[in-house]
Design brief:
The protein is mainly alpha-helical. About 65% of the residues lie in helices and about 0% in strands. The chain has 9 helices and no strands. Helix 2 packs across helix 6, helix 3 crosses helix 6 and helix 7 runs parallel beside helix 9. It is globular, with a radius of gyration of 19 Å.
Length: about 200
């Protein structure tokens, strides 16, 4: 699986961002300075998620985030290098706990349970559907979820590449299903406002 992530096909522009994110999220030093910086990053990401949950992805800007936290916009860049990095951190931080999948079922039941849990996640934070997909899952929580999806197919005859493709297919199905639901709700609200 690691070979898939670092394969040459991975978007070259995304690699530096992913490396910075992984370094931040996997910080092992217990120095007070590093813990303080990690706490600030987590605080920034949490505030950004709150903005997105309340107003969609359009509500998240570095200046709005700075205002919310009492920082200057430029000071945010000491903790987060770009809005793209912020979005990747937001997506990873908003992912809930790993789905509990009944391993006694067959691969279809396990794959369906995983996809349903992912659908709940996508519906809980509809702004995630607005985040552009730039490659494979990047953050630690995303990778754990991806791994759980792979486990659904462990007793099949699929190759590892076919298992990964199957998980990505289910993830895209879940994302599309959530987007369709969000779009239908939005259309109904607009129709109601226009007619009433």
């Amino acid at each position: 699986f690691v070979e898939v992530i670092i394969a040459p096909e991975v978007n070259e522009d995304a690699k530096p961002i992913l490396n910075r994110i992984m370094a931040k999220l996997q910080e092992t030093s217990v120095a007070e300075n590093n813990l303080s910086k990690l706490a600030e990053v987590l605080s920034l990401v949490s505030a950004a998620i709150e903005l997105a949950d309340a107003g969609g992805l359009a509500a998240v800007s570095m200046s709005r985030l700075a205002d919310r936290l009492g920082f200057t916009t430029m000071s945010l860049y000491r903790y987060i290098a770009s809005k793209e990095e912020l979005l990747l951190l937001m997506v990873d931080a908003s992912i809930g706990p790993l789905p509990q999948i009944d391993v006694s079922g067959g691969w279809r039941e396990r794959a369906e349970a995983w996809a349903r849990e992912l659908l709940v996640f996508n519906r809980t934070h509809p702004w995630i559907l607005e985040v552009p997909i730039s490659g494979l899952p990047a953050g630690p929580r995303q990778l754990l979820w991806f791994d759980r999806g792979l486990a659904a197919f462990e007793d099949t005859r699929l190759t590892e590449a076919e298992k990964a493709s199957s998980v990505l297919l289910l993830a895209m199905y879940s994302r599309t299903q959530a987007a369709l639901g969000t779009d239908l709700v939005r259309a109904a609200q607009l129709a109601k406002e226009a007619g009433g």
